[in-house]
Amino acid sequence: MDAFGDMIRGVRAQGSLFGSSTLTPPWSLHFVDGAPLTLCAVLGGGGWVVPEGHPPEPLRPGDTVIVRGPGTFTFVDEVGTRATPVACGEFCTAPEEGGTRHRRGWHDPGAGDATGATTLIVGAYPVRGEISRRLLDALPTVLRVDSGGEGDPVLEHLAAEVATDTPGQQVVLDRLLDWLLVCSIRTWFDRPGGEPPAWYAAQRDPVVGDALRLLHADPAAAWTVSSLAGRAGVSRATLAKRFVDLVGEPPLTYLTRWRMTLAADRLVEQESATLTEVAHAVGYSDAFGFSAAFKRTRGVSPSEYRRSAGAPGPATATATTVSGRP
Description:
The chain is an alpha+beta fold and about 325 residues long. It has helices at about 5-10, 130-135, 150-160, 170-190, 200, 210-215, 225-230, 235-245, 250-270, 275-280, 285-300, 300-310, and strands at about 15-25, 30, 35-45, 45-50, 55-60, 65-70, 75, 85-90, 120-125, 140-145.
C-alpha cells in the first residue's frame, strides 16, 4: 500500500452517481448539499461551474472539475444565465426544471437529440474519517482537469454504461466514478508546475518512496530508523536526511502521526474496541503509551476523542439526486 492509496481508499462511491443529466439552455442547477467532494464531468456540450466564493470554471466535453465542500456551487449554461436556479439536494428530483430530462432508468434514447444539449455526469462523495481527511486537506477548493488525459477512457466507459439499463449498473457506475476520481486527483498532483503534498511527491523517490510504502504496508511493526533504512537499502543517516528533506519531518514522526490517524478512525468506527486493542492494532504494547502519544499528537486523550467524535453533530453530506431516478 502506498500513501496515496491508503488515503483515498475510504473515499468510495456508493450509489453516489447522481446524474447523467441532459440539459438544454438555459439552466442553473444549484448543488446545495456542500458534499466534502463533488465531481462533475461533461460527456457532451458544456457549461460553467460556479463555486461559492470562487471564480467560475468552464466545463467542456471531457473536462472534469472536483469541488471541495462545505461550500456549495452552481452549474449553469453561461455565466449570468437568465435561468432561475434549481436547488439540487439529497431529495431533489426536478426533471421538468432547468432543462433536465427525466427518464426512469439511466438510458434515455432521446436525451441527446436536443440542439445544444449538455450531458453532465455528477457524483458526490461523503468523506468520513481522519485517513480520508488528510487527502481532502491536500486539495484546493476547485480542482480542474482538462480533457486529453488518463481520465478520457474512463469517461468513454461512463458514456457507454449510461447508454443502457442493465443489472448491476449502479455498481459499475460507482466503480467508474471512483476510477475517474483517482485519475483526476493524480493528474492534478502530477501536472507541470504543480505543488502536490509532500507525502505524494516523496513516493517517487527511490529511497523515501520505499520507506513510505513500508510504513503504510505495516504501520504496527516495531520500526526504527535503522530497520527502515536497512529495508530501503541505504544508511540510517541517508534515509533520515532524505526523508526530512522530502516529507518535511523525520520517519518516526511521520509514522507516529499516521498511527494516530489510523487510531482515530478505529476509535470511532469500532466502538466496542478497548484502548488496549486499538493500541495493539497501531503498534503500541499498552494503552498507557498509546494514550500518551495520542494526546501529544492530537491534543486530547483517546477517550475524549471517542466521546467528542461520537457526539451528535451536523449530518455528513451524502449522495444526492439531480434528475429523474425513481
